[in-house]
Design goal:
The structure is a homodimer.
Chain A: E1 2-6, H1 11-23, E2 27-31, H2 42-47, E3 55-57, E4 63-65, H3 67-75, H4 85-114, H5 122-143, H6 156-166, H7 179-189
Parallel strand pairs in A: 1-2
Antiparallel strand pairs in A: 1-3, 3-4
Helix pairs in contact in A: 1-3, 1-6, 4-5, 4-6, 5-7
């Protein structure tokens, strides 16, 4: 069976658990407390030298890191990875955009809001919120003329951008007036097998 | 013919030009001055709503953004994209890691070093340099037991991480003592068709 090393606070982890659930695929879950350094132990670093979750351990013991790479690996052969070469590249483009423009703002604002001691300054938090809102507005404009980010059905691009978008307000990044984005969140929540982000537990 | 909108300062752009050259593929190059706002004009934003280069325009006029997605699209069917599902996912994992851990530190330190007015503080520059060096050290450790990042040959993962690594010292991120990394840079530079990053012109 697959094993997922994860932390329930993480939207990067949630993406993977969401796809596993949509695919109806069983997976053993091993929770790691990132605040207690459990992903920086010598043992964990042998599994992932980058010291991060989520990390997927395959049946043969090899490990795959990076949430979006895990999504692609899991989605191969399913409807969640486009067959068409250009559509697949477009899905990847959204996923790279997420890691560069969306996650470092929307997710980091949420992390700092829940862990004020980790927030370097109110000015930097305000910048994260501003850039996070800009990322959500770009998504909203794209979704104003289509139901899914790429092609005619839900793909790894949608799943990858769902998790932190769905809890953006926890970091002070509101979605007021972003109607197309909010409707798209609802479409993902209506997929058979959908699971939500866990409520944050301090 | 393909058209690449690019800026010669950019390592993200260089990755794409490097792969095009290695593949011997012709491409029309259209340079954009990012400092003069040429990627934020209404005309350019219709091509890429994110307002960034590199941007690849295909023969039929459709556009593909995000350097690493462009690499994957171009590499399909060539030796630079692994055939094996797990190796392909591992290559993607390095590419997502690059956009989250390497580029925001190594490339941004270089950008701030060349454009001091854009640098928010010396403290933040020092942090970028420290995290950039840590990223290069992780690469160096991985390369200490193998020639290429994934599998037995050069892949999109190597090309994606080459460009900014090769000019890290311009941003004050040295590669002293990172022998495996420096030898790997040399292996990429020995590939038939290799082209180097352009010297920075202020």
């Amino acid at each position: 069976m697959l094993t997922l090393y994860d932390c329930l606070e993480s939207g990067n982890g949630h993406k993977v658990r969401l796809l596993l659930s949509l695919l109806g695929r069983e997976c053993r879950l091993v929770l790691k407390d990132i605040h207690a350094g459990e992903t920086r132990t010598p043992e964990f670093l042998t599994l992932n030298p980058d010291g991060r979750i989520p990390l997927l351990r395959l049946e043969d013991g090899t490990c795959l890191a990076e949430s979006n790479a895990i999504l692609v690996w899991l989605a191969e052969g399913s409807s969640f990875l486009p067959d068409d070469r250009l559509e697949r590249a477009r899905a990847l483009a959204w996923m790279f955009w997420e890691q560069y423009n969306h996650e470092p703002n929307v997710a980091v604002a949420r992390f700092w809001a829940h862990h004020p001691a980790k927030c370097p300054s109110q000015e930097q938090l305000a910048q994260k919120r501003e850039k996070g809102r800009a990322a959500l507005e770009l998504l909203d404009r794209h979704l104003s003329t289509r139901d899914w980010l790429v092609g005619g059905r839900a793909s790894v691009a949608d799943l990858c951008l769902y998790s932190y978008s769905s809890v953006s307000e926890e970091g002070g990044v509101d979605r007021d007036g972003l109607d197309a984005l909010n409707r798209w969140l609802g479409r993902i929540e209506a997929l058979p097998g959908f699971i939500a982000m866990e409520p944050w537990s301090d």
